[in-house]
Write a structure and sequence with these properties.
alpha/beta, 2 domains, single chain, four-stranded mixed sheet
């Protein structure tokens, strides 16, 4: 067996050559059976007076743990002589093993070893990003399905609903959000009326500011601004809370003792937002229209009574219900995205911040996409 292995490695044995004092050429199979002569070659190397050397690893055909250890020995030999070694051209498939062996050696020596970085190239990065995105989309669909099954379980067993957690989340996501929703909605109503004032004044159509403010706020701006506020406020809080629990292994502890994280953490937040977002949208409608009334009085001379009379005639119940109907969909998106990104947290505190950022970006993006789809659908049905 030994003779057959020696014959197999005769033409592909690992080798180290030094064409010049600052250059090394690595070739062959750096494995336990084919690297027998490398140790002798390493001892014959002379780093010389050069402070840096370059090792070309493009001709390495195979590598195992023994070969990776020998290659690290080569790097250490030059480091011990006060020179630095730049390892270039190593195949990407050898890098994980090389890095793992280096970490093990560093642990034993109580030091850190700098690992060479390999640029995977543009095509590889695009493919990897596409693959990661596809995996995240599939995981998201699986999470939605799991949440739906847990919701059905709640409906069939109402005694399992954690009302205390639901009420706490209604307070934190709904009641505590009233001030910021009020301020932004009122200012948005002022902005809409102000932007329309100049154009309406030119045509003597001042009274139609009530139509513009009413339809814009009730159909689009109020539900959208409320959802964006909650995506940045509550969605990020959900991701950070659940992500921190994942990092500290509290979620694993829940599963160990037979508790479902979906029922304990996700469903109370989802139910709370289903209640809070429509109510906040109604609140935003009122404040947005109030802001428009103030600006109509100041810029166009439209009195409050005239504004309200025109508003009642111009805005139908359908327009009001269209805006309210979007709110539950936005609530589901915000709650599920925040909790999903929180449960995907891995590693340490940096991962919590990364997943929190993703939850906000994805929630706002999906809310806007959903709003656009609603607009297309309502246009088709003539609503």
């Amino acid at each position: 067996m030994h003779n057959s292995e020696s014959l197999a490695c005769r033409d592909t044995a690992a080798a180290v050559s030094q064409p010049a004092p600052g250059q090394l050429l690595l070739s062959g199979r750096w494995t336990a059976t084919c690297a027998g002569a490398v140790g002798i070659q390493l001892r014959a190397l002379r780093p010389g007076a050069a402070s840096a050397a370059v090792a070309d690893a493009r001709q390495i055909e195979a590598m195992d743990t023994a070969g990776a250890w020998l290659l690290h020995a080569l790097l250490r030999r030059f480091q011990d002589q006060g020179a630095t070694m730049d390892l270039q051209g190593m195949r990407p498939e050898f890098m994980p093993l090389f890095a793992q062996v280096g970490e093990r050696i560093a642990e034993q020596r109580g030091a850190t070893v700098a690992m060479p970085q390999v640029d995977p190239g543009l095509l590889h990065r695009v493919g990897q990003r596409s693959w990661d995105t596809g995996q995240q989309v599939l995981a998201g669909f699986a999470f939605v399905g799991e949440a739906a099954l847990a919701g059905v379980s709640w409906l069939t067993h109402p005694s399992r609903i954690r009302w205390r957690a639901v009420m706490f989340n209604i307070r934190s996501a709904g009641v505590d959000a009233l001030p910021i929703v009020a301020i932004l909605s009122f200012l948005l109503g002022i902005v809409v009326a102000y932007q329309a004032a100049d154009q309406l004044r030119r045509f003597g159509a001042n009274i139609f500011v009530a139509d513009l403010v009413g339809l814009a706020m009730l159909r689009e701006f109020a539900p959208l601004i409320t959802a964006i506020i909650l995506a940045g406020r509550s969605g990020s809080a959900y991701a950070a809370q659940i992500g921190t629990m994942a990092v500290t292994e509290e979620i694993d502890a829940m599963r160990t003792i037979g508790l479902s994280p979906m029922e304990i953490l996700v469903l109370p937040k989802l139910l709370a937002l289903l209640v809070a977002v429509p109510l906040l949208t109604v609140f935003a409608d009122i404040l947005g229209v109030a802001g428009g009334m103030v600006m109509a009085q100041a810029q166009l001379g439209v009195g409050y009574v005239d504004f309200l009379e025109r508003f009642v005639n111009a805005v139908s119940p359908t327009s009001y219900l269209v805006g309210i109907g979007k709110a539950p969909v936005f609530a589901i998106i915000i709650a599920l995205v925040g909790c999903f990104q929180g449960l995907r947290t891995r590693g340490g505190a940096d991962s919590v911040g990364r997943q929190t950022t993703r939850s906000v970006v994805q929630a706002i993006f999906l809310v806007i996409v959903a709003d656009a789809m609603f607009s297309v659908m309502f246009s088709i049905f003539g609503l």
